[in-house]
Write a structure and sequence with these properties.
With 173 residues, the protein is of the alpha/beta class. The protein has a single domain, classed as Rossmann fold (3-Layer(aba) Sandwich). The chain has 3 helices and 9 strands, in the order E-H-E-H-E-E-E-H-E-E-E-E. It has a 6-stranded mixed β-sheet. The protein has a 3-stranded antiparallel β-sheet with strand order 1-9-8. The chain is globular. The model has no long low-confidence stretch (mean pLDDT 91).
């Protein structure tokens, strides 16, 4: 049996994303911005950022997977459309920024195209779990209780909670 506890309401999430999208608009004023969402968890956040961003924006999705290897985690890009970020400003959109390994890999991969800049935005930033030196320039939430997060695009495939408009902790009872 599980107990679902709302941590942030849909209104709190919308309010914070709207404010961050305005801040991003100020930071990237008159610059070509590409949002790169890491599937699947970032889909809801990317959609809202694109919707509330005050200027034109392009977006793409990628899927990056990690698996254990002999000398640490193996990271691979399993899905990416053919998009060009040369000379453009890139904002990587992530659901939960934990270790930073996935984001570091993606930054390295995209840097080969020589973008104007690359930054990270996370729905939830957990810097206490970082294993590599990456930071989220923008975080919707950075103070979140420990536990399994569901809602607003988060949750396992087939979870009845993934499409909730709020962000919750799923406690096992």
């Amino acid at each position: 049996m599980s107990n679902l506890r709302v941590v942030f309401s849909a209104e709190e999430i919308r309010s914070r994303i709207t404010a961050l999208a305005a801040r991003i608009g100020d930071d990237y004023q008159n610059k070509e911005l590409v949002l790169v969402g890491i599937l699947k968890g970032a889909a809801f956040l990317l959609a809202d950022v694109a919707r509330y961003y005050p200027g034109p924006v392009d977006f793409e999705f990628v899927d990056v997977t990690t698996s254990p290897g002999e000398r640490g985690e193996l990271v691979s890009l399993t899905y990416a459309t053919h998009f060009n970020v040369t000379g453009r400003h890139v904002l990587i959109i992530k659901d939960v920024l934990h270790t930073g390994i996935t984001e570091n890999y993606l930054i390295t991969h995209l840097s080969q195209q020589k973008p104007a800049s690359i930054e990270i935005m996370a729905l939830v930033d957990k810097p206490q779990h970082r294993r590599v030196n990456v930071t989220a320039r923008y975080a919707v939430f950075s103070e979140v209780p420990d536990g399994y997060l569901v809602g607003f695009g988060l949750g396992q495939t087939g979870s009845p909670y993934t499409n909730r408009p709020d962000l919750c902790i799923l406690d096992k009872v």
